[in-house]
Write a structure and sequence with these properties.
8 helices, single chain
């Protein structure tokens, strides 16, 4: 569509001209907006930006300013400019964004070692599986003793054994667990 065609349509029916322009270029404008805002904007922001783009286009044709050639370039320019304005407005409210190329990125280095954390969690899961494989009451005794730091008297009431039996079972269960860990090649 050319600028002259749109001007002619406006003289016939303003609403119809706006509807035709919107129908023909809405996906084009939406693509431009999404390419610029998709990483930071919500759907409502995209829709509001799109409305602002078409509002500005329609207002531009209300002036006496003369346009020539294809209308697509004009629409694309308006869409890019308004999408950039939205990007800056949304980004100005965020304080946790920083460019990876920025010199300040060294100040935001985490002390956490992801590889060590993952390894530690894997070992914990393996250890818990091995403890569960010991069966009851040994697994209950070990979990209560070493994870929840409970004493033998407290544990004895839970499993129905004397405190001396709990301590003896705990020693035997630990020996079995050490043997299982050595067999698996895991050192703690």
């Amino acid at each position: 569509m050319k600028h002259e065609d749109f001007r002619r349509e406006i003289k016939i029916s303003r609403d119809n001209a706006h509807r035709v322009l919107f129908d023909e270029y809405s996906s084009y404008v939406y693509t431009i907006i999404c390419n610029r805002l998709r990483s930071i904007a919500k759907r409502e922001d995209l829709e509001e930006c799109m409305s602002d783009v078409f509002a500005e286009i329609f207002l531009a044709y209300d002036t006496e300013k003369e346009f020539c050639g294809e209308i697509k370039g004009f629409i694309g320019t308006v869409a890019k400019r308004i999408a950039s304005d939205y990007y800056n407005r949304i980004n100005s409210h965020k304080t946790d964004n920083i460019s990876i190329d920025d010199e300040l990125t060294d100040k935001f280095v985490s002390d956490e070692r992801v590889d060590e954390t993952v390894y530690s969690r894997d070992i914990q899961n393996i250890l818990l599986d091995m403890i569960k494989s010991l069966g009851e009451p040994d697994s209950v005794i070990l979990i209560q003793k070493f994870y929840f730091k409970r004493n033998s008297t407290f544990i004895s009431k839970q499993v129905g054994l004397t405190p001396e039996n709990v301590r003896a079972r705990c020693r035997r269960a630990l020996k079995k667990l050490r043997a299982m860990l050595e067999k698996a090649g895991i050192e703690l």
